[in-house]
Prior knowledge:
Helix content: 55-70%
Amino acid sequence: MTAFLGIGAAVLLLSVIAVRVSIRLGLPSLLLYLGIGVLLGEAVLGIQFEDADLTRSLGTVALVLILTEGGLTTRWSAVKPALGLGIALSTVSVAVSIGVTGLALHHLLGLDWRTALLWGAVLSSTDAAAVFSVLRGVGVGKRLIGALELESGINDAPVYIAVVLLASSDAITWTTPLLLVYELLAGAAIGVGLGWLGGVALRRAALPSTGLYPLATVAVCLLAYTAGDLAHASGFLAVYTAALVLGNARLPHRSDTLSFAEGLGWIAQIGLFVLLGLYASPERLPEALVPALVAGAVLVLLARPVSVLVAALPFRVPWREQAFISWSGLRGAVPIVFALIPLIQGVPDAGRLVDVVFVLVIVLTIVQGTSLPWLARWLGLVRSGEAREIEVDSSALDELGAELLQVRIQRGSKLHGVYLSELRLPPGATVSLVVREDQGFTPQATTRLQEHDQLLVVCTEHARTATERRIRAVDRAGRFARWKGDAGLP
């Protein structure tokens, strides 16, 4: 047990360092994570791991956490202008991509129709982690970013349903499309409902610790996935929509929740890619190279452009933006996890599909990931002043040497009635925000504090102790705390 814990910690630290390396190399970090997994596997260090069922189960958990992080950190104002296009890309585009890819692979690789469509379904899902690790800093317009963000968050749901249907031995009838529509609509409704209820409950809850709010928020999202799955609806869509609703709600300790979700998302991505690299069998991959290149060419040069064209037609998207969206359909861990479903269900030649998808993900990530910034500039989509987003961090102030203190004025506190100028905080500290009756405003020297006010105090690290003492002293003894000898000690 101790050895496994140490190995896990070492892998996590190495993966965190790999993020910095990938940024310098201009490659998505998933390639390095996969490489770490392969290094640990049977071909190099000799760790044997061939449990497809366990890999699929752990992969599903990781995808749920990644979708949770994606929904919580997605701003509704950013995706709202691209809502129609994003939904079309995640539904209509998926259907067209499956059909075109299946048709081409049936003739080019000699696959039977159902197997060819199954390959098309597995390959049709884009990966949020892969897409946004590359798009960061490209500088294209918000509409494009919003559309791709929605697509990568939503399209896992219809693709998963299609893969399960095509991998089973059940006949596809006229009721199959109705079942698909039900699962998507029910999943979205469950997610929106639980997300709204969760937001209301968290605002009214009085949890004893700040750290419990992020845990409760993530738990609501996981509950949405479970509820969707039990209702035979789309759990993936339920968890994403629940997280989207919660992420745009007025949550207590919102910045802490988002930071926690981001860290959880990183752990899920790292663990998933390392796990998939560990599961891979490098000695079989050369045999999958030719079919992977054929499938990749069909996907990138034919299926993806045609599917984007059909989905974007009602929205009058310029051809330059359509070209960029087509090239931005990066594949990551999702197709590999979905390829394990037919393998577990005993579909003939499913092991070949897993190897093909693994090779294809590596090839497309290298080709598309490294060329995407260049393509954006060549198409004239990079706007001046937007080549890199300004870095805004809502919680971590370590680089600034600053601290954030949150103060709530309780009933009976001597802070009630004190003017801000009388608070006399030490040098290096200031009250930057006052929230009164759910309304925030920037205080002035003449602002008079009241019971139930919440204060946001910004101070330097060196001034933190003195600031806390002064606030405690005034809380107990009022504006003349210094004259009364209260030093504000705990």
